[in-house]
Specification:
Elements lengths: L22 H14 L6 H12 L7 H13 L1 H11 L1 H11 L4 H31 L3 H27 L13 H13 L7 H11 L4 H34 L2 H29 L2 H20 L1
Helix pairs in contact: 1-2, 1-11, 2-3, 2-7, 3-10, 4-10, 4-11, 5-6, 6-8, 6-10, 7-9, 7-12, 8-9, 9-10, 10-11
C-alpha cells in the first residue's frame, strides 16, 4: 500500500540511477499543473502535451510510461494542499458541520459528497480505459475544441440570463443534493483528458444558479475531494511503477512547484471570473486545440 507519494517514499538504498524525470522536467510539470489545475483549460491535457513535447514515448518501456502517467495525476497533491490552505476556513466549517456543530457546514459537506459520488462510482471502472486510449495529443486536442464550444454556450446563456434578470443568485449553502449530483455527473465527463474538471463543474454551477464566483468556489472545494481521491487511488494502484522509475526528489519538487503556482492561479481566477466570465478561456482552448492538431499531426 502506497501512501501519498509527494510526502512519502519507501527508502531506497541509493538513488534510482536512470530516473526518467529530472528536476527540470519536474519544474515544467509543476508549473503546468499548478497554473492549469483550477482553470477551465484541463490540467491533465496540458500535462499530457508537455510530456509528449519533452519526452519521446518510443524511448520508454511500458512500466516507465505507466509511471509518468501516474505521476501526472499524483502531482495534483501540491495543488490540493495549496487550495486546502486558501479555503481552510470553509473546510473548518464543513468539519464542524459533520460534528453536528454547524448546520450550514453540514449541508455544504453533504453537497460535496453528493457531487463526488458519481466520479467515485465510475472512476475506478474507467481509469484504465481512459489511460490506454485517451492519454494522447489527438484526444486532448479534440476535447479542448469541443470544450470551447460548450463553454461558449454556457457563458452566452449566463449573460442572457443576467440581461433578463433571471439569475437565481444561489449561495453554496443553497444548493440541493440534486444540484450537487448534477455537477458531479458533469465532472465525470472531465475524466476525458482535455475536457477540464474545472470547466465542467463551473458550468454545472452556472446551471444550478450559482454566480460565477460561487461556481468557481464550489469547483475548488469539490476538486479537493475528487483530486485527493484520484491522487491516492493512483498512488495506491501504480505506486510500484512510480517508485521503480522516479526519484523522490524531483517528484516532491514538482508537487511543491504545483502548490505555489496553484495558489496564485486560484487567487487570480476568482477575481477574473467574477468580472469577465469564461470568454478568455473559450478562445484559449480553441486556439490551443487547433494548434495541437496541426503541430502534432501535420509536422
Amino acid at each position: 500500500m502506497l501512501l501519498p507519494l509527494c510526502i512519502y517514499a519507501e527508502p531506497n538504498n541509493g538513488e534510482i540511477e536512470n530516473s526518467i524525470i529530472s528536476y527540470e522536467d519536474a519544474l515544467v510539470f509543476g508549473l503546468v499543473e499548478g497554473i492549469t489545475e483550477f482553470l477551465p483549460v484541463s490540467s491533465t491535457g496540458h500535462l499530457i502535451l508537455a510530456n509528449e513535447w519533452m519526452m519521446d514515448p518510443s524511448t520508454l518501456d511500458y512500466s516507465q510510461q505507466e509511471a509518468i502517467n501516474a505521476y501526472l495525476i499524483v502531482i495534483q497533491a501540491g495543488a490540493i494542499f495549496a487550495v486546502a490552505l486558501l479555503y481552510a476556513r470553509r473546510i473548518y466549517i464543513i468539519l464542524l458541520g459533520f460534528l453536528g456543530l454547524n448546520s450550514m457546514g453540514r449541508k455544504l459537506g453533504f453537497n460535496l459528497l453528493a457531487g463526488f459520488a458519481p466520479a467515485a462510482i465510475t472512476g475506478p471502472f474507467l481509469d484504465s480505459w481512459i489511460e490506454s486510449f485517451l492519454f494522447g495529443s489527438l484526444p486532448v486536442a479534440i476535447a479542448l475544441i469541443l470544450g470551447a464550444g460548450l463553454m461558449y454556450w454556457a457563458e452566452k446563456r449566463k449573460i442572457n440570463q443576467e440581461k433578463m434578470g433571471q439569475v437565481e443568485g444561489k449561495n453554496l449553502e443553497d444548493l440541493s443534493i440534486g444540484d450537487s449530483i448534477m455537477v458531479g455527473l458533469l465532472q465525470c465527463v472531465a475524466m476525458c483528458p482535455g475536457t477540464s474538471r474545472s470547466m465542467m463543474t463551473i458550468i454545472g454551477g452556472y446551471l444550478a444558479g450559482l454566480s460565477r464566483g460561487q461556481s468557481a468556489e464550489f469547483s475548488f472545494l469539490l476538486g479537493l475531494v475528487t483530486l485527493t481521491a484520484a491522487a491516492v487511488y493512483k498512488g495506491a494502484t501504480k505506486g510500484n511503477e512510480i517508485l521503480e522509475n522516479l526519484q523522490f526528489g524531483p517528484m516532491f519538487f514538482g508537487c511543491l512547484i504545483a502548490g505555489v503556482s496553484a495558489a496564485l492561479s486560484v487567487r487570480w481566477l476568482v477575481g477574473y471570473l467574477s468580472k469577465r466570465g469564461l470568454g478568455l478561456f473559450v478562445w484559449y482552448r480553441l486556439f490551443l486545440g487547433l494548434f495541437v492538431l496541426f503541430y502534432f499531426w501535420e509536422f
